[in-house]
Amino acid sequence: MHMRKINTDFECVVVGAGIIGLSIARSFSKRGVNVLVLEKNAKFGEETSSRNSGVIHAGIYYPKGSLKSLFCKKGNEELYKYARKRKIKIDKCQKLIVSCSKSDEITLNKIKSIANLNGVKLLKKKNSDLKKMEPNLNCFSALLSKGSGIIDVHNLMLNFISDIERKKSQIVFNSTVDNVDATQEKILFSVNSKETFSTKLFINCSGLFSHILAKNILGLKKELIPKINLIKGDYMKLSGKSPFSRLIYPVPSKFGLGIHSTLNLSGQTIFGPDDEKISKINYNISERKKKKFVNSIKKFWPDIIDRDIAPDYSGIRTKTEDNDFMIQDYTNHKVPGLVNLFGIDSPGLTSSIPIGEYISSKCLNYLR
After folding, report:
1. Residues 339, 24: contact at Cβ < 8 Å?
2. Residues 274 and 292 sit within 8 Å (Cβ to Cβ)
3. pLDDT (tens digit, 9 = 90+) per residue, 101-128?
4. Cα separation of the two ends of the chain
């Protein structure tokens, strides 16, 4: 995309200060572009970015050629590298995907094949191996992912912000972008229904609201906005000592990776998320869900029936119909300077650095 020089208030505007928006802004800033990040909340990363498992994924489940497979494997390596360089707390604790039935065994073999296609090596472990690795685990067999781990997401976002501000770009909070006019040479947008500004590049990565903001973009064909499902996932915290030293995952469900056992960086065990299709955003967790969690977890950890779990937090993720990230730019919608991101759910955290690099490198010619 090339354009003749026109004067605008801003060079690049990114809507959304979650992990993805911050990564995109960081990547542009590194390339010498002045970026304005607009966030409707009072703080950064208040929605999907702070309401997830904090897991660094290896790139196991995603069909070869999908954006998820492309970004996740690259992101895994880059995230560990960045975290070590910045001394962000990580734990490369590994992950086991467990088989608790004969049908699970078939699914495990499929997962291993998909991982191989993505260049991710998984080791098949039989029951006798697993008893030594995780004495409390009850299953037939499992796949071991050595590249999986956990990260301090809050500290990661703080470091991205530090990178952005060091390059003289800025983040403004309590700023809701209402209407966008992309029918002219420059993109016009209003903030908090008051002032109108102009920008050369407008990047919509407003997470749960990306598809809603897209509907308010004049000049964007509405049939290009994908159908988005909101999937709510609740988490429960285990009281007392953790039974496992690794992340334990069942085989995936339709909308997610199943209720799994993860660790936080304090060594506590968190179970979740489950998946529930919702129409309105709410983060309430019902005590009544305990039974569902226990029934699911006891398949791989029967001792849970003697332990206490309590509601911890919940998160909401956006899903496209084909369960892949969707990044739309000029090649899709023919609107110069506009980029929309939809359905950036898991492994969005792991993929954050390469998504930022991908978008900034693609748009750089347009700014020049």
Report:
1. no
2. yes
3. 888 999 999 999 999 999 999 999 999 9
4. 10
